[in-house]
Amino acid sequence: MAISNAGDYQDFAYTGGVQAFTAPFKAVYKLEAWGAGGCSLPGGGIGGYSAGYVQLAQGETIYICVGGAGSNGAGGYNGGGYGTAQNGNGGGGGGATHMARANGVLSAVAVGHVFLIAGGGGGGSSKALNASYSVVRYGGNGGGLEGGNGEEGRDNDSGGGGTQTSGYAYGRGQDGGAGNGDGGGGGSGYYGGWHGLCTTNDGQYRGAGGGSGYIGGVPSFVYKSVTYAPSTTTGGGAAAGANGSARITAVKRMELPVIFNGTAIERLFFNGTEVMSLVFNGTKLFMRKLFLRVHRGGAYV
Fold it and tell me: Most Cβ neighbours (<10 Å): which of 66, 126, 151, 295?
């Protein structure tokens, strides 16, 4: 739904493109992002969750890029790594969901413009050893400060998840493929996850790592004695095979208040209608916290 007052929120679903939000009024806004999951078959990881707060003036714009789920072989939109099936079956990694001041997919936006990122889940890897038995290695969950390792994966190696300082690449999960070790693709994130493995010559089977999240662009601050702090959770996002999502909520309006008898006036109604603004000396005064005096019969009421 559209935002018109404090407490309202607007949701953003996966579209395969970048979406925009323009602040309708000056306020503290909460930003939430859920990363996409890796391919559900075989065994993709869950996306991550990140949240934080920003102070926006009326007319400021935020760009939202919602990650797509990994599919059989293909990586999810916004940086998910491709899986391969040359020596088995590799699921694609999930795309990251991010919000930024600049337009574009994550890998094309400088980190200095990024508010937050929720990592995508890694793709799983599997190999049919015989007609009745297959080995499945699950992909790691998206971050969070760190993406999860794929099942039997290792940090900074095949199947490792992204962190705050290392991973496959900024904004991209690693592709599985010939020369990389066939298998699942890494989840996207601040640092993307490493590919999975599905090899026959040495019996190595590993799920791909999840991408890491990021909350460095939404530092904690205090407004009117309330602390607004970011948070992030590994595996708190979309399920395997599901697209990511995002939400922006207007938490608290920041217009100039009017104090009456020591109390800030929060809402004003005139003849049963809520007054939203006045103009004083050519300046529009928002009435979320204004007091209006009406002159009737020689007296102010």
Answer: 66
pTM here?
0.84
Pairing of strands 231-233, 245-253: unpaired
Instruction: Dump pLDDT digits (tens) for 201-239.
Output: 666 788 999 999 999 999 999 999 999 999 999 999 999
Q: What is the pLDDT of residue 100?
A: 98
**227 pairs with which residues across the strands?**
222
Beta bridge partners of 133: 130
β-pairing verdict for 226-228 and 221-223: antiparallel
Torsion-angle region of 104 (φ positive above 0: left; ψ -120 to 50: alpha; else: beta): left
CA nearest to 42, candidates 207, 179, 212, 211: 207
Q: What is the pLDDT of residue 198?
A: 79
Beta-bridge partners for 61: 22
Judged by DSSP in three states, 18 sits in: strand
62-82 per-residue burial string, b: 16 or more CB within 10 A, e: under 16: bbbbbbbbbbebbbbbbbbbb
Q: How far apart are CA 262 and CA 118, in angstroms?
A: 43
Burial of 20: CB neighbours in 10 Å, binned 0-12, 13-18, 19+:
exposed
CA–CA gap between residue 149 and residue 160 (Å, rounded)? 4
Length of the chain: 301
Taking the C-alpha atoms of residue 3 and residue 248, their distance in angstroms, rounded to an integer, is 9
Q: Determine the 3-state secondary structure of 106 from DSSP.
A: helix
Q: What is the mean pLDDT of residues 3-32?
A: 97
Is 98:138 a contact under the CB 8 Å cutoff?
no
* Lookup: tokens for 102: 């600049």
